[in-house]
Design a protein that fits this description.
The structure is a single chain. The protein is elongated. The protein is of the alpha+beta class and 697 residues long. The longest helix has 27 residues. α10 links the parallel β5 and β6. The protein starts with a helix and ends in a 10-residue tail after the last helix. The protein folds into 3 domains: 144 residues, no CATH class; 247 residues, Gamma-adaptin ear (GAE) domain (Immunoglobulin-like, Sandwich); 182 residues, von Willebrand factor, type A domain (Rossmann fold, 3-Layer(aba) Sandwich), CATH 3.40.50. The strands form 3 sheets. The protein has a 6-stranded mixed β-sheet, with helices on both faces. Helices cover 35% and strands 17% of the residues. α17 packs antiparallel against α18.
Length: 697
């Protein structure tokens, strides 16, 4: 009997176990999952709160030593959930990159197969679920044995890696492919699909960072100007123009060259380039005559047949304690176009620098404008500096540009706090991009012209590039009895608002006009270099109703004429066939090149005063350029550079290298390094392209 049983056992032992069918396995798993859901459906998800299980002795010991009970608080539950989400996200990342592939096998282990012939008997005593469970256990055991056999037979990882052939190097200029095989992702995707929705890892979104500040390009606007023509002294001997102390053109030119592009021709106003620099001209003795003029004549460095007549004017410099009290309104553009770092952030820092130069009894108010205008800070004494700084630090950009409404509110606020014997000024800081409300230049011009009669003046500070409206800001400054500057760096803000604060804020003369009458016996032709936008009619010189430029305390103003002496070999204009009817100069005046007249008004006065001086050929004339005064030679170098940037119509073969040589010989006392900077800018201009490369976003 025993032998028969043994034989039967051996016979069955030699037979391979029946492989479970796929359908049976699927059915068993579904029934098991259903039973699990029914059992746990009434329970809340997560760990049930309460004290952790422990024996009595351990609990007593924990109480004695004072250890707190470990209880699942909401804070701990939240922290654990957060940690689980982080781990899940990291797991998804590793799954996507295939970092969990088995290093010992390049192919995934085959899933146990269930034979199609296996039938689950639902009527048996164990039930279909029980039979399926037994078959699954046998299949899992066989799969485990097969996997262990493969692992034991596999070579060590390092040996296998060394034995494998390395992939071929990618071709030049190509990048190697890092795509993982599609089959490596299949198991991971199935596991993710079977997991509950709230625990499925999310695929990382592409890096969509917030866009940086918006910056326009190529929308800068400048007034179209033509260089002053050559005039014949016998036909038109009188030249009249308004003084100009603006420096915006120089700063914009510098910003362009630093960005490796030549400035537009219309952006170059030669007189503003010349007047950017402080010159050591002779100063007036007292403020009763607010400025003094000095004249020199010397050969032109770019044309041997011509000479230059250099006129330098120095304004009286007020001491800080002598300056009147100030009533200032900061009118700040906070529109969306001011979001760039060189716009509103620079505006705020510039106003902080200006604040440091004011006295405790001065007042400051702040008006901002974007889609609409509003008062950010009512008139506040500078001694309450913390309040002013707090208002500045809260400014941010956004919206359209209602500039006209902002100007109206700023003037109204300045008039409400008007100081009769003080300085009342609106300081506008903007890129000039007015696009809401009154945007027409002529309307804005008329408005500021009327407002200057109330005693409130307007200064304009320009910021930014790309949509810089220089034409509008020049109109506002010239008709608002103020000056215009362009702030491209914090150093420039310090120059304009700190070092030249007196010149910027405190006028010593207004409506300043210059008129030169040339002697036709000495001068055949003449040409004024620059001041194209400041030319006046001859009759405007004596008309006190005609507005002109103002001079601030300590300002230096330069004007240069290029003249052709009588008897020169080459003339720009041919002589008339029938001669002229010009009258001869009075006796004793034949040695004069011309006669200089300066008309001005003192602050608070409406009647002009007159200063006159002859331009002789005595001590004011120099035989060579090298013997001319240092200040005159450096101003000449700047004038030549400005004319070359505008096309060099009258400078002939004079080059950038010639400008550098002339400027280096006349650097003089360069306390702040402005002249050295100019020489470097000329070097940049030699290689700068005429058109900026279009930025692509």
């Amino acid at each position: 009997m025993t032998d028969d049983i043994k034989k039967l056992k051996d016979a069955f032992g030699q037979e391979p176990p029946l492989a479970p069918r796929r359908s049976a396995k699927k059915l068993a798993i579904e029934r098991a999952m259903t039973a699990f859901d029914e059992k746990n459906s009434a329970q809340a998800q997560g760990t049930r709160p309460g004290t952790r299980l422990m024996d009595t002795a351990t609990a007593v010991y924990e109480t004695i030593i004072g250890r707190r009970s470990m209880r699942l608080t909401p804070a701990l539950a939240g922290g654990a959930s957060l940690g689980a989400l982080v781990i899940a996200a990291m797991s998804a990342t590793y799954i996507q990159t295939g970092s969990w592939n088995n290093p010992f096998s390049s192919q995934p282990s085959p899933a146990p197969q269930i034979s199609k012939d296996t039938v689950v008997d639902s009527s048996s005593g164990k039930g279909a679920a029980g039979k399926a469970k037994e078959k699954l256990e046998r299949a899992a055991g066989k799969a485990k044995t097969d996997r262990e056999t493969r692992i034991s037979a596999a070579p060590p990882p390092i040996a296998r890696l060394r034995s494998e052939a390395r992939p071929a190097a990618p071709a030049a200029g190509a990048l190697p492919s890092f795509e993982a095989p599609a089959q490596d992702f299949a198991p991971a995707r199935k596991r993710i699909a079977r997991s509950p929705a709230q625990f499925r890892p999310r695929i990382a979104e592409p890096d969509r960072r917030a866009p940086g500040y918006y910056q326009d390009q190529g929308r800068d606007r400048f007034e179209n100007i033509a260089p002053n023509p050559v005039k014949v002294a016998s036909e038109d001997p009188v030249s009249t123009f308004s003084i100009d102390v603006d420096t915006a053109s120089y700063s914009f030119m510098r910003s362009s060259l630093i960005n490796n592009v030549l400035p537009p021709k219309d952006a170059v106003r030669v007189e503003e380039l010349i007047n950017y620099f402080p010159y050591d001209y002779a100063k007036p003795a007292d403020k009763s005559v607010p400025f003094k003029a000095s004249v020199s004549v010397f050969p032109s460095p770019w044309n041997a047949d011509r000479k230059l007549m250099h006129i330098g004017i120095a304004g009286f410099d007020l001491k800080r304690e002598e300056a009147p009290s100030s009533n200032l309104v900061f009118l700040l553009d906070t529109s969306g176009s001011m979001s760039a770092p060189n716009k509103l952030p620079l505006v705020v820092n510039s106003m902080k620098l200006l604040l440091e130069t004011l006295r405790p009894d001065d007042t400051v108010a702040i008006v901002t404008y974007a889609g609409n205008a509003g008062t950010v800070l009512e008139p506040t004494l500078v001694k309450d500096k913390a309040k002013i700084l707090q208002a500045l630090n809260k400014l941010h950009s956004g919206g359209s540009t209602a500039g006209a409404e902002g100007i109206r509110q700023a003037y109204e606020l300045a008039r409400q706090n008007l100081k009769k014997d003080g300085v009342n000024r609106v300081i506008l800081a903007t890129d000039g991009d007015f696009n809401v409300g009154i945007t027409d230049r002529n309307e804005l011009k008329s408005f500021v012209e009327r407002q200057r009669e109330t005693g409130v003046f307007l200064s304009v500070l320009g910021f930014g590039r790309g949509n810089y409206n220089d034409a509008l800001m020049q109109t506002l400054a010239q008709n608002g009895n103020g000056n215009a500057a362009y702030i491209d760096t914090l150093s420039e803000a310090r120059k304009v608002l700190v070092e030249e604060a007196s010149s910027t804020l405190f006028p010593i003369a207004k409506d300043v006009k210059l008129q030169v009458e040339f002697n036709p016996l000495k001068v055949a032709e003449y040409r004024l270099i620059g001041y194209e936008t400041r030319m006046l009619k001859r009759e405007d010189f004596n008309n006190d109703k005609v507005d002109a430029g103002d001079i601030g305390a300590g300002h230096r103003v330069t004007a240069i004429y290029e003249i052709t002496p009588v008897g020169a070999k080459s003339l720009s204009v041919d002589a008339l066939r029938y001669g002229t009817s010009a009258t001869k100069p009075a006796a004793g005046k034949t040695d004069e090149y011309g006669f200089l007249k300066i008309r001005y008004k003192l602050p608070g006065e409406d009647e002009s005063k007159l200063i006159t001086m002859p331009i002789g050929s005595g001590g004011a004339e120099y035989a060579t350029v090298e013997s001319a005064p240092v200040e005159a030679r450096f101003a000449t170098a700047v004038a030549a550079f400005g004319q070359i940037l505008r096309g060099g119509r009258y400078t002939g073969a004079f080059s950038y290298d010639d400008v550098i040589a002339l400027a280096q010989s006349a650097r003089g006392k360069d306390e702040f390094g402005y002249r050295a900077e100019f020489i470097n800018l000329v070097r940049l201009a030699k290689s700068a392209p005429a058109l900026h490369v279009l930025k692509r976003r």
